[in-house]
Amino acid sequence: MPDFIYLASQSPRRAQLLGQLGVRHELLLATPEEDAESLEVVLPNESPTAYVQRVTALKLDAAVARRKRLGLVDAPVLCADTTVALGRTILGKPEDARDAERMLALLAGNTHRVLTAVALQHGRRRHVALSVSRVRFAAITKKQIAGYAASGEPLGKAGAYAIQGAAAAFIEHISGSYSGIMGLPMFETAQLLRSAGFKI
Fold first, then answer.
1. For residue 99, what are the contacts with CB-CB under 8 A and spacing of at least 6?
2. Which pLDDT tens digit goes with each residue over 5-23?
3. 61, 81, 96, 99: which one is catalytic?
4. Is 3 one of the annotated active-site residues of the chain?
5. Under a CB-based contact definition with an 8 Å cutoff, are residues 141 and 92 in contact?
6. With contact defined as beta carbons under 8 Å apart, do 105 and 44 qualify?
7. Residue ranges in the chain modelled with pLDDT below 70
């Protein structure tokens, strides 16, 4: 039985959440020659569910190939991807503060979905899970949106916000997995790890 896993994510939140499960992990990050950003391009007419599952599978494929290419010791590889969806509209990571303001204005006063797909490769076996949560934003003033966007926190975050950050002040209600909204649903991840032989 393996005593650690590779986490193929540069998200400190995912590393923190994985640590809560008591699982030892090592980061397996994309190398400079890899075009990691191209994996996140949305296909025409792609649904948010199909998108997040496809991107997670592509990221896992790349991570498994990376481990082999680097000659690293064999161990399970974990990947995850999170997307924010308003209806069928996918809200990815904002390009800049102005783009973040646009996204936050769409979310204000509305309920949106946060979808996080998780995939674990162990040998030839691949285990996958999907967490879907609903988040309701209160009505937010333009001044509040501009202030939050200017803080820099929305950059690098799907949907231009982090629930564990200052944006928590805008959130009226959530239904689903708080950790899934952060980027790694603990319940589903624990199930995948158990299937790979970890005692959790």
1. 160
2. 999 998 999 999 999 999 9
3. 81
4. no
5. no
6. no
7. 1-2
